[in-house]
């Protein structure tokens, strides 16, 4: 099986849609080939409320990304917010199929597929099956069994389900844009993949992604996500507060927020007023996070502290306030370096979209599923159909 494959990660954000197209090489390394963005106002509190507007933004972002990449993309891995999700434990099992009874990526996928067979209410859908441990011939505590020798492979997994209406709106928006959803990735997991190291995830770390309208949290311990949380407040609320407090347009308030000197003690009267506005809303966000994560933090499972991501994390002073309220070290997370096309600034890249690519690159089951779903002829037919669609759109 070759991982030398081109994939696309799609981030449907509260203020913009971003698509990142990248080549994943055999070693799991990533070369970003194209990036496309388009403003979007079709979401409220992380939920799509205007499918046509979102679909239009997706189509535009896709067109820009494919032109930069020089490839035609017709399917995407799309990010899904951790809104109204629930978790259940499950167990899967399969016989190994490799030579000399070695565990293959296909075996891992079969075990996870087995874990996904459980009763799900009609108003919910499975988003992800997250392995907690693999068991090979009774030996447990294994995180990556590929290549090990054994007759029976088992997995204990956490099955994440989401509200069907939310997931269907995402799928419908992608389909109206002329694309298909190849698979879904939880947004906080994608962001964690973009900024955390393996050591941090092992020792214990919390990722806080402050988006436009919601803030998503995931906590890792021993390399496994152990808790998700979502609070309905984000960076847009800070901007709104500034706009109302200063009686200025939203766009001007956003510029003031980005260059605010909140962390400085000195400043004129207006700067002090702005700092008070920002601190009040930031404190609300931190207190909501504190209430939702108190148990894991008090248990000593966040040794590496909290890492902030998302556009809302650029507000000055956020790390100091977080350390005070959450009582753990805090810092702004930085994306792992990747090869980027000329003219694309690393700081401007969507951490969700890039994280989706990295998440896929580290998980061979995605590629197993891709290879099992399409023969070479079907793939050729699929891309030919996509090329014809683009030709007709451009011609007419």
Give an overview of the whole structure:
With 396 residues, the protein is α/β, with parallel strands linked by helices. It folds into three domains: 5-83 and 165-191 and 339-395, Nucleotidyltransferase, domain 5 (2-Layer Sandwich), CATH 3.30.420.40; 86-163, 2-Layer Sandwich (Dna Ligase, domain 1); 197-332, Nucleotidyltransferase, domain 5 (2-Layer Sandwich), CATH 3.30.420. Helix content is 40%, strand content 28%. It is built from twelve helices and 16 strands. The chain has helices spanning 51-69, 105-115, 164-176, 187-195, 198-203, 235-246, 250-258, 269-298, 318-326, 351-361, 364-373, 376-395, and strands at residues 5-12, 16-24, 30-39, 43-44, 47-48, 75-80, 86-95, 124-136, 139-142, 152-163, 180-186, 205-210, 215-221, 224-231, 306-309, 330-332. The strands form four sheets. The protein has a five-stranded mixed beta sheet with strand order 3-2-1-6-11, with helices on both faces. The chain has a five-stranded mixed beta sheet with strand order 14-13-12-15-16, with helices on both faces. Strand 8 (124-136) and strand 9 form a beta hairpin. Helix 6 (235-246) packs across helix 7 (250-258), helix 6 (235-246) runs antiparallel to helix 8 (269-298) and helix 8 runs parallel beside helix 9 (318-326). The longest helix has 30 residues, at 269-298. It is globular, with a radius of gyration of 22 Å. The two termini are 40 Å apart. The relative contact order is 0.15.
């Amino acid at each position: 099986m070759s991982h030398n494959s081109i994939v696309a990660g799609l981030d449907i954000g509260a203020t913009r849609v971003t698509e990142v197209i990248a080549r994943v090489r055999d070693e799991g390394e990533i070369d970003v080939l194209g990036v496309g963005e388009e403003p979007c106002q079709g979401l409220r509190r992380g939920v799509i409320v205007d499918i046509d507007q979102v679909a239009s933004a997706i189509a535009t972002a896709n067109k820009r990304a494919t032109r930069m990449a020089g490839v035609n993309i017709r399917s995407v891995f799309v990010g899904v917010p951790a809104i109204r999700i629930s978790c259940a434990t499950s167990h899967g099992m399969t016989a190994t199929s490799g030579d000399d009874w070695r565990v293959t990526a296909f075996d891992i996928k079969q075990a996870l597929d087995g874990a996904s067979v459980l009763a799900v209410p009609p108003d919910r859908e499975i988003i992800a099956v997250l392995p907690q441990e693999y068991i090979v011939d009774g030996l447990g505590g294994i995180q990556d069994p590929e290549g090990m020798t054994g007759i029976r492979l088992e997995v204990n997994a956490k099955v994440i389900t989401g509200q069907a209406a939310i997931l269907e709106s995402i799928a419908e928006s992608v389909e109206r844009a002329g694309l298909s959803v190849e698979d879904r990735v939880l947004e906080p997991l994608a962001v964690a993949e973009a900024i955390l190291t393996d050591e941090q995830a092992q020792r214990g770390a919390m990722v806080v992604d402050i988006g436009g309208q919601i803030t998503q949290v995931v906590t890792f311990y021993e390399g496994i996500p152990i808790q998700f949380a979502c609070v309905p407040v984000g960076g847009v609320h800070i901007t709104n507060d500034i706009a109302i407090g200063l009686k200025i347009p939203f766009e001007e308030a956003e510029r003031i927020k980005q260059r605010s000197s909140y962390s400085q003690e000195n400043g004129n009267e207006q700067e002090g007023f702005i700092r008070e506005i920002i601190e009040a809303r930031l404190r609300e966000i931190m207190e909501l996070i504190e209430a939702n994560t108190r148990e894991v933090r008090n248990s000593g499972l966040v040794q590496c502290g909290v890492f902030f991501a998302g556009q809302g994390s650029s507000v000055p002073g956020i790390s100091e306030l977080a350390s005070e309220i959450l009582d753990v070290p805090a810092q702004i997370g930085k994306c792992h370096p990747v090869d980027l096309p000329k003219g694309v600034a690393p700081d401007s890249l969507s951490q969700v979209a890039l994280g989706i690519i990295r998440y896929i690159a580290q998980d061979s089951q995605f590629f197993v599923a891709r290879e099992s779903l399409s023969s070479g002829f079907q793939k050729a037919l699929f891309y030919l159909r996509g090329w014809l669609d683009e030709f007709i759109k451009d011609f007419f």
